[in-house]
């Protein structure tokens, strides 16, 4: 039934559906007033969050870092629960080579409340959250998981996507509290450069310094005028020859490699 206004002195008869709609509107408005000036992290608690079950033998503290595993209840188990209350197994992050490579590279969450072993709680998978990050370089702009580490992320630049570091203490490195935007963000720094060889390269040279860096897919690293590139294809080239180098992000390698060389 549509809600209509009445004139002064007109008999007032309020159907139950209309009265209930008025109560809902009043409660929504009161909730809006309570939210004004409140902690935005608390008021947006459920935005970008999922339920997780602590699958480890240790309790998670608030703002611990976890990797997302299997669904606790799959679509085949219970479709309605899958739709309305998706819940993941929360594990210690895995970031290793071989079979498990990438298992939790883009499947990271930050728990928003303490969760004891076997219990279920809330974890943020997208959006703003406080989290501890091991800042390696002050210019690093993304953060990735650390293998087996639930207390902090690790700052990073080239070759891998991760959480965007919005703020950390200027000029300080090491593990510290930061504000991060969780998601799958790529670093602004280049992972490919056009370069020249700084010296003679022979087919037995394992690595060589390259300079005259021209970034191809981002901006130049802030404190880098030269790089050490590995000669993985056993090429030979003269001093000053043009080349291309890329960052190999395979876990266990993580190095710059020559992929093209002007051999004329």
Itemize the secondary structure elements and their pairings.
Elements: H1 16-35, H2 40-43, E1 49-54, E2 65-71, H3 79-84, E3 87-91, E4 108-111, E5 120-124, E6 127-135, E7 142-144, E8 153-156, E9 162-167, E10 174-185, E11 192-197, E12 207-215, E13 227-230, E14 242-248, E15 255-261
Parallel strand pairs: 1-3, 6-8, 13-15
Antiparallel strand pairs: 1-5, 2-3, 2-4, 4-5, 6-10, 7-8, 7-9, 9-10, 11-12, 11-14, 12-13, 14-15
Structure description:
25% of the residues are buried. The longest helix has 20 residues, at 16-35. This protein folds into two domains: 49-185; 192-261, OB fold (Dihydrolipoamide Acetyltransferase, E2P), CATH 2.40.50. It has three helices and 15 strands. By secondary structure, it is mainly beta.
In short:
This protein has 264 residues and is mainly β.
Defining traits:
264 residues; OB fold (Dihydrolipoamide Acetyltransferase, E2P); 5-stranded mixed barrel; 3 helices; 36% strand; elongated
Q: Low-confidence runs (pLDDT<50, min 5 residues)?
A: 35-44
Terminal-residue CA separation: 83 Å
DSSP strand (E) fraction? 35-45%
The number of strands is: 15
The figure for the number of domains is: 2
The assembly state of the depicted protein chains is: single chain
Radius of gyration: 27 Å
- Shape by Cα distribution: elongated
The level of helicity is 10-25%
Structural class: mainly beta
């Amino acid at each position: 039934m549509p809600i209509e206004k009445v004139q002064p002195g007109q008999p007032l008869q309020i159907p139950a559906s209309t009265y209930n709609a008025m109560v809902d509107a009043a409660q929504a408005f009161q909730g809006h007033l309570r939210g004004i000036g409140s902690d935005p992290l608390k008021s947006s608690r459920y935005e970008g969050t999922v339920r997780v079950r602590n699958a480890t033998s240790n309790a998670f503290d608030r703002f611990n870092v976890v990797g997302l595993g299997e669904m606790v209840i799959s679509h085949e188990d219970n479709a309605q629960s899958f739709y309305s209350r998706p819940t993941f197994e929360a594990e210690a992050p895995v970031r290793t080579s071989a079979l498990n490579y990438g298992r939790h590279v883009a499947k990271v969450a930050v728990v928003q409340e303490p969760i004891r072993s076997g219990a279920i709680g809330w974890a943020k998978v997208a959006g703003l959250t406080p989290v501890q990050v091991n800042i390696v370089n002050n210019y690093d702009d993304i953060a990735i998981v650390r293998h087996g580490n639930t207390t902090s992320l690790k700052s990073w630049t080239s070759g891998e996507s991760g959480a965007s570091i919005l703020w950390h203490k200027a000029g300080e490195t090491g593990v510290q509290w930061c504000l991060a935007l969780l998601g799958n963000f790529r670093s602004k720094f280049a992972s490919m450069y056009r370069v020249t060889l700084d010296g003679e390269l022979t087919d037995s040279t394992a690595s060589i310094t390259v300079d005259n860096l021209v970034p191809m897919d981002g901006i130049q690293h802030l404190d880098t005028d030269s790089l050490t590139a590995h000669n993985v294809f056993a090429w030979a080239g003269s001093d000053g020859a043009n080349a291309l180098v890329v960052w190999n992000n395979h876990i266990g390698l993580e190095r710059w490699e020559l992929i093209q060389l002007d051999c004329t």
